[in-house]
Amino acid sequence: MSKFIQSSKEQGQQGTSFLSDVNQSPAESSQTQQNINVTRQQSFGLTETLLNNSVTSLAAASIASVGSGHVRAIDPNHCYKMDHKKRGKCIIFNNKEFAKSTTMPARDGSDFDALRMREIFGDLLQFDVDVHVNRTTIEMLQIVAKAAAEESNCDSDCLALVILSHGGDGGIVYGTNGFIKLEVLIEPLKGLGCPALIGKPKLIFIQACRGMQLDEGANASDTKRGKTAATADTAYKIPTEADFLYAFSCPPGYFSFRNGKQGSWFIQAITKVFKKHGTNLEIMQLLTRVNQTVAMEFESNSQNKDYTGKKQIPTIVSLLTKDLYFTRNRWTED
């Protein structure tokens, strides 16, 4: 806006300068100057009108804070509706101990992850959080199916599912008694199986290995690394796979690191980024910063040399159809 005003002033000054180059009588020059002054006042009046209209338009639009003294206008036509009575349900599976038959070891440090995710989704993002510890695959599926069938989903913005467990190749995650394919676990959330969440975001966060491959990393100079930088009454169909977002701690086939005393790299990064930007940035911006945090700030250091000096990068799979902001402009009592 200030640039627009400055530009108008500069144009006026240029007009005055132009007069001095024109051969006119004093009376003609005086009359011409008066006409230009009137034109300049009209120009500033138009500028003021445009500015007022811009402010009115901004006030009518949704605004998201993106830092001290900065705002970003959000087009509601391209954003998920996030002003229902409730934010929605967040289910956290914290599977840390497993039957001997699975050959899976205990997941030390998982409680730190569960506590952090409960804080982020409950206290910060305002979800109704349910934490389930050491559940079998059948119990996990039943819990997801029950959440999908809840009537409260009609009054909710979205749903989140957090899985803290072992995993493996082929898209599997572990319950305490064995594994289940992720696509089977979330099937109740799709399409007509969960009609109240059709067109609403379903967010799936998975902290689990997806194989045993290790990321050796690649050397890069510090210099380069530091400087790189439909209407409501219209009937229409939505793909059953639409409006899902999957945030994996690692790519397919790779090992995912977890510290027994601090928790996993992935959840530590989510905590850091979401605490700072969780109610300001769009979800893909948030998760991209999570990727950067894991990639740049973590490296393995193990007594086993085969696991030392390794890196990790989370993986984002978005089937969302709109932008998603976790605005905090309701339910809060001052």
Which bin fits the share of residues in helices?
25-40%
Please work out how many helical segments DSSP would assign: 8
Largest sheet: spatial strand order? 4-3-5-9-10-13
The SSE order reads HHEEEHEHEEEEHEHEEEHHE
Chain oligomer state: single chain
User: What is the CA-atom radius of gyration, in angstroms?
Assistant: 28 Å
Termini Cα gap: 33 Å
- Round the mean pLDDT to the nearest integer and report it: 81
**Which structural class best describes the helix and strand composition?**
alpha/beta
Shape: globular
Salient structural properties:
alpha/beta; 8 helices; 13 strands; 36% helix; 334 residues; single chain
Give a structural overview.
36% of the residues lie in helices and 18% in strands. By secondary structure, it is of the alpha/beta class. The protein has a six-stranded mixed beta sheet, with helices on both faces. Strands 6-7-8 form a three-stranded antiparallel beta sheet. Strand 6 and strand 7 (172-175) form a beta hairpin. Helix 7 (265-277) packs across helix 8 (283-297). The longest helix has 35 residues, at 26-60. The chain is globular.
Question: What's the short story on this structure?
Answer:
Helix 3 (110-124) packs parallel to helix 7 (265-277) and helix 7 packs across helix 8. The strands form four sheets. This protein has a six-stranded mixed β-sheet with strand order 4-3-5-9-10-13, sandwiched between helices. A three-stranded antiparallel β-sheet has the order 6-7-8. The protein has a two-stranded antiparallel ribbon with strand order 1-2. Strand 3 (86-94), helix 3 (110-124) and strand 4 form a beta-alpha-beta unit.
